[in-house]
Protein backbone atom coordinates (compact mmCIF):
# COMPACT_ATOMS: atom_id res chain seq x y z
CA UNK A 1 0.00 0.00 0.00
CA UNK A 2 1.52 3.34 -0.99
CA UNK A 3 1.52 6.44 1.24
CA UNK A 4 -1.50 8.03 -0.47
CA UNK A 5 -3.51 4.84 0.05
CA UNK A 6 -2.45 4.65 3.71
CA UNK A 7 -3.49 8.25 4.27
CA UNK A 8 -6.83 7.74 2.54
CA UNK A 9 -7.44 4.58 4.59
CA UNK A 10 -6.78 6.44 7.86
CA UNK A 11 -8.98 9.35 6.80
CA UNK A 12 -11.85 6.92 6.18
CA UNK A 13 -11.21 5.24 9.56
CA UNK A 14 -11.37 8.67 11.22
CA UNK A 15 -14.61 9.47 9.40
CA UNK A 16 -16.11 6.20 10.66
CA UNK A 17 -15.12 7.06 14.24
CA UNK A 18 -16.56 10.57 14.00
CA UNK A 19 -19.82 9.37 12.44
CA UNK A 20 -20.20 6.80 15.24
CA UNK A 21 -20.04 9.76 17.66
CA UNK A 22 -22.89 11.49 15.82
CA UNK A 23 -20.97 13.84 13.52
CA UNK A 24 -21.71 14.45 9.87
CA UNK A 25 -18.43 14.59 7.97
CA UNK A 26 -16.96 16.08 4.82
CA UNK A 27 -13.64 14.80 3.49
CA UNK A 28 -11.42 17.17 1.60
CA UNK A 29 -10.07 14.57 -0.82
CA UNK A 30 -6.74 15.32 -2.51
CA UNK A 31 -6.99 19.00 -1.70
CA UNK A 32 -3.57 19.20 -0.01
CA UNK A 33 -5.23 21.75 2.26
CA UNK A 34 -4.82 22.31 5.96
CA UNK A 35 -7.78 20.19 7.10
CA UNK A 36 -8.50 16.68 5.84
CA UNK A 37 -11.96 16.35 7.39
CA UNK A 38 -14.57 18.78 8.65
CA UNK A 39 -17.08 17.22 11.03
CA UNK A 40 -20.14 18.83 12.56
CA UNK A 41 -23.08 18.07 14.78
CA UNK A 42 -25.68 20.41 16.20
CA UNK A 43 -23.23 21.93 18.68
CA UNK A 44 -19.76 22.15 17.19
CA UNK A 45 -17.57 22.02 14.12
CA UNK A 46 -14.38 19.95 14.24
CA UNK A 47 -11.50 20.60 11.85
CA UNK A 48 -9.40 17.44 11.58
CA UNK A 49 -5.89 16.82 10.29
CA UNK A 50 -5.16 13.08 9.93
CA UNK A 51 -1.53 11.99 10.21
CA UNK A 52 -0.28 8.48 9.45
CA UNK A 53 3.51 8.55 9.77
CA UNK A 54 4.18 11.16 12.44
CA UNK A 55 3.12 14.44 13.93
CA UNK A 56 2.84 17.58 11.81
CA UNK A 57 6.04 19.45 11.13
CA UNK A 58 6.82 22.89 12.51
CA UNK A 59 5.45 24.83 9.53
CA UNK A 60 2.22 22.85 9.37
CA UNK A 61 1.74 23.10 13.15
CA UNK A 62 2.18 26.87 13.02
CA UNK A 63 -0.31 27.14 10.14
CA UNK A 64 -2.90 25.13 12.07
CA UNK A 65 -2.35 27.19 15.22
CA UNK A 66 -2.76 30.42 13.27
CA UNK A 67 -5.96 29.30 11.55
CA UNK A 68 -9.05 30.87 13.06
CA UNK A 69 -12.12 28.73 13.58
CA UNK A 70 -15.65 29.64 14.66
CA UNK A 71 -16.43 30.04 18.36
CA UNK A 72 -18.06 26.61 18.35
CA UNK A 73 -15.16 25.05 16.43
CA UNK A 74 -12.08 23.13 17.49
CA UNK A 75 -8.96 21.85 15.78
CA UNK A 76 -7.91 18.21 16.16
CA UNK A 77 -5.03 16.06 14.95
CA UNK A 78 -5.76 12.34 14.64
CA UNK A 79 -2.72 10.09 14.47
Describe this structure in a few short sentences.
The protein has 79 residues and is an alpha+beta fold. Helix content is 34%, strand content 25%. It is built from 2 helices and 4 strands; from the N terminus they run αβββαβ.
Counting structural domains, the number is 1
Our count of helices gives 2
- The neighbouring-strand order within the major sheet is 1-2-3-4
Mean pLDDT across all amino acids: 92
Q: Write down the secondary-structure element order.
A: HEEEHE
Note poorly predicted spans: none
User: Level of helix content?
Assistant: 25-40%
State the total count of DSSP E strands: 4
- Percent strand equals 25-35%
Biggest sheet, open or closed, and with what strands and sense? 4 strands, mixed
Q: Under the CATH scheme, which class?
A: Alpha Beta
- N-to-C terminal Cα separation, in Å? 18 Å
CA-atom Rg in angstroms: 12 Å
Which of globular, elongated, flat, extended, rod-shaped describes the shape?
globular
What class would the helix/strand composition place it in? alpha+beta
Amino acid sequence: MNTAAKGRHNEHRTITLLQAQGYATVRSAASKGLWDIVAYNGLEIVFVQVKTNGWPGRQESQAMAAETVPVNGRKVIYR
